Amino acid sequence: MTDVVRPAATASPADLLDLESEFSVSELEVRDRVREFADRRIRPRIARWFADAVFPREIVPELAELGVLGMHLDGYGCAGASAVEYGLACQEIEAADSGIRTFVSVQGSLAMSAIHKHGSEAQKEQWLPRLARGEAIGCFGLTEPGAGSDPAGMTTRARRDGGEWVLDGAKRWIGLASIADVAVIWAKVSDDDAAASQGARSRAGASSSGVSTTGCERVRGFLVPTSSAGFTATPIEPKLSMRASIQCDVTLDGVRLPDDAILPENPGLAGPFACLDEARYGIVWGAMGAARDAFEAALGYAGEREQFGRPIAANQLVQEKLANMALDISKGQLIALRLGRLKDAGKLRAHMISAGKLDNARTALDVCRTARTILGGNGITLDHSPLRHALNLETVRTYEGTDEVHTLVLGRHLTGLQAFR
């Protein structure tokens, strides 16, 4: 069960519009370096990891050495890469497998971004260098059993008890939680408790976030060492998708944390949403990597598989499928590149990310399903990548916002009217 390893990096046959020429030398160097790693370390083993439902933890230090853990962040040992460079890295890793790209996203776009965007200087110094080096693993706990698309409906709460925080609640579908060293947990906190914590930290010389005392609740983030008493992470098994990745149920039963465990910046749902947008941006690129790999597998197979005395690639219906897949990939990569350039220019807006995540995830899934049909019965084995990619993309299409959620984000942008409730 091994996928075909491609030769040295070149433009994909799916590149119908010469997008290769749109990238700078440094961007292509990042792409080729990550592609070489994926071809060498992931592709020859991914079928077995997927079949056995194993996340290959041994490659974490190698991914760190490759520079892809938090690579879009500045300082604290992070690579400080451009948005386009990060996108290309996501594309090449997901061309090998969505589950491995999901690790990179959870570690960098979610856990590390939360600390980088919303943490104190002490929290950044404590965790970001270790996470960038792969010496520690992070996870991001937002989704709950009863609060997926509606995170405002979360029931996890943090309350003050003396000089400590106490967390109670449950999270679901939390990537890496069972192997993580630190969890970013989002919980509802009363403004009174938040203000009391802020006052204590201000008296101790910490910065103030300006929280008012209104008696209301708002969502706040906490850094929770996973060794804390009362923190339990249980992998969700068996799964039909993302089998070379880890997703968990998490319970928080009276988890006690020091006062400075709270992330001091950006109270409210804007905090986790900013991190989710980072992850969604990576998906826009990554999904096209999976689609491209499935297309190339189907194209190669069609040229070699003979029926009725000739390669099936000579059949009109097969050529129609190949042409449509290549067009879809080219359009999806144009979307990804446009968003990357906007992000690097500081002009990327949330509805644009929703447009890219919505369209590229569903397009990639359609491409992979079509590619499987060209492989016929052989396509259901792990000797070939398209169905594995399609199974993974069922998750990619769902997480970080379902089709319905992103459609309504775009509807709100177009009409100015909220349709979520």
TrEMBL record:
It catalyses: glutaryl-CoA + oxidized [electron-transfer flavoprotein] + 2 H(+) = (2E)-butenoyl-CoA + reduced [electron-transfer flavoprotein] + CO2. Its cofactor is FAD. The keyword Repeat does not apply. Its EC number is 1.3.8.6. Keywords: FAD, Flavoprotein, Oxidoreductase, Transit peptide. Residues 139-255 form the Acyl-CoA oxidase/dehydrogenase middle domain. Belongs to the acyl-CoA dehydrogenase family. This is glutaryl-CoA dehydrogenase (ETF).
